Amino acid sequence: MIQPGDLQCLKALAVMGGCRGSVRLSTLTLSSSLGTSPQTASRRLQSLERQMLVSRAVTAEGQDITITRKGEEELRREYAELRRIFEEEPVQYTLRGQVITGLGEGRYYMSLEPYRKQFQASLGFEPYPGTLNIRLDSQSVQVRKRLENLEWIRINGFAADHRTFGEARCLPCRIREVPCGIVLPVRSHYPEDILEIVAPTGLRERYGYRDADMVEVEVIA
Amino acid sequence: MIQPGDLQCLKALAVMGGCRGSVRLSTLTLSSSLGTSPQTASRRLQSLERQMLVSRAVTAEGQDITITRKGEEELRREYAELRRIFEEEPVQYTLRGQVITGLGEGRYYMSLEPYRKQFQASLGFEPYPGTLNIRLDSQSVQVRKRLENLEWIRINGFAADHRTFGEARCLPCRIREVPCGIVLPVRSHYPEDILEIVAPTGLRERYGYRDADMVEVEVIA
DNA sequence: ATTACTAGTAGACGAGTAA
DNA sequence: TTTACTCGTCTACTAGTAA
Q: Which residue is nearest to nucleotide C4 (CA to C1')?
């Protein structure tokens, strides 16, 4: 197993072009790129050479470093691991929390036709008049923040009855077998540990959810 | 700047799925994946938390770890760096060595019509009757080995004058402005520090190369 | 079982120096 | 200038232990 410090050094050498030919450098330049002393940089190069991860030609004016096949393989393993994390697997987020009782606003908004029509169009179902509120655990709050990077569906605001109804955004998700949506107002601030779920059916009725019951929300990016 | 050891730990957590939700683990399981003691694993987690790269919920039966947005960004930076090395840039190899005098076999083989025709077809030029032999420096020998992974052109053998002429392989390259090819017999062993170059013109004449002159061979994958 | 403390030690670090 | 040695220090590790 390659040591973290050695790996960092090997990667720095690759960035300098060590995979495509020899790189001329001094321990001083390498050390500044590693954030260590020149002595440590020198030690690292010796260590990499001993492990046959690089090949060296040391002269009085510096050294020529080439990453060997074995060294490149090591870097490619690292690369493959990261790619698996970020690319290969379908990115799926799991949020956990417990059912709570909201302010009843969800029920009201879900009864408004302009909202209903937009949810129907974007989520593919007629929203049940009422939302499920979930208080996320501390871990899921972090996951929740990550969802900001995903593509939310825009729900336009409108005016009616001498007032305006604000813009919202919505992210498709799933609770058990039921396709749902996370709804969030765009303008007004919303607690980061609360999730408001719109669904085609009443989830409390369907699954017998009561306050403080644990639920899992799946989001597939 | 994140420390190499912390980065290793963060990556291990990501492999376990820490980017898509919380991961339940114990210091013992983490330590075995890092190759350290459980104590060090514990310290790493504390360090990552202090840097706000992960969020933790520590219980008596283990801990739930979630990689924060900042932590994921750190990993993505790492990923981007490796991708630049292996994907983005056109992979170009540079080999260095000095001109030497070969055994004159190259000249003979290059005079044989079946070989000539195949070189013409695959490299796009009529080979000059004679090859340039190059002794690679120790660094370039390492680069030379890396070329094995590239796609070489097959040059078929043939029979003539009661003997057989062996199969060879060829890799397009460039010396200065001249498109050339590296030639290598397939069956017989060839010194790993010697490069035999076939070119459309006599390189010695064109550039006035003499023995011991330094030359650079560029290979673009 | 856990986590994370304290303690003692080993190894890594940077400064100085020689080649 | 370089590299890489020796040396003293201090960090970072593992072992043991408490919660």
A: B42
